[in-house]
Amino acid sequence: MKNLHFKKYPKQRVNKTGLDSTYPLFVSASPKKSDTTSPVVSDSVDNLKLYKSLQGRQKIMSWYEQLKNEIEVDYESLFVNTRFGQTHAIVAGDIKAKPVLLIPGIAGCAPLWRHQINELSKHFRVFALDIVGQPGKSDPNPPSVFNDDYSNWFQDVVQNLGLHKPHCIGVSTGATTAMDVAILKSGLIDRVVMCGPTGLARARLPFHQWFSRAMAKKKDADVLEGELTASSFSKPRSGKSFGSFDRQLARGMALCTRFYRVDKSLGIYNEKTSRISLLKGLRVIGKFFFTVEKKRLKRFKNQGLLIFGEYEVLYNPKKVAKKIKKLIPTIDIEIINDAGHAAIYDQPEEVNKKVISFLQSK
């Protein structure tokens, strides 16, 4: 953090939210526009612990900064303290507007939401989050996927920002976090949008695409980007590449596959043996690819919007939609044509309209 110049919010502002002001709960850089260069987090030893090399981290953060150039509205960088360290957010929109928090999936980051930041900030105060322990500018202290750590982290973010019942939008495992928060801490948030959450049904494990092609260590990020787009997310039986798949998401996935320690971020790497723990690896598969208990899903009481891509890679969206509608009557469901697992990134114009309409409805 040495290279960053922050200013603390005045204490009286924090006190108005009813929060403890004995230490700064959040700090903010000066507002930025899309054509400015924001500060970069230092390459300290601690910040490198989840990367395979300094060069790899620099490549990921270079992509991160370039991605921010697609944000067309005024925004600022803000850091909020949590029990897992500081969480970074890209913040845009009227400070008096209803807050909306955006949660990326594993190996995702705040600027991947650039299309949502551009549109949703016209109506809401948008907070696009870098998850702690994932690529980006938040502290490299990953919560555990085996307990309620992610929900507790999210609660810290909401409370220490002084937000009252914000809306919440998540994609992939970020959508799973949003779903968990609605189940465990329903009163903390208002409406919930979940795009391709894991755990709704027994998933199809895409081993062939990921392990025989994408996970090959010898392939560089450029080759991986092409294969993640053309091979892993092709339309069924068409033989043609899935052209609507978000290229920037493919780039980020390729860079993280090549340079990021996803095993450490998921808590399945054993530092003592320098090996992946098979038992913990199987538990992660169970967490993300097996069905959540029906009793747990029935505890979801918030108004929700569930979004699937037509070519969802994990399961059949139409079958899952019928199942979830019976279990959770407060959820609306949309299936987006010509989109994959991250439909909100693949077809942002169409999905943004549906999301805004849902969040503004009474």
From TrEMBL:
Give a Gene Ontology cellular component term annotated to this protein.
membrane
What InterPro entries has UniProt attached to this entry? AB_hydrolase_1 (IPR000073), AB_hydrolase_fold (IPR029058), AB_hydrolase_sf (IPR050266)
Which residues are in the AB hydrolase-1 domain?
98-347
Question: Which Gene3D superfamilies would you find in this protein's record?
Answer: alpha/beta hydrolase (3.40.50.1820)
Alphabetical list of Pfam families matching this protein: Abhydrolase_1 (PF00561)
Q: What is this protein called?
A: AB hydrolase-1 domain-containing protein
Q: Which organism is it from?
A: marine metagenome
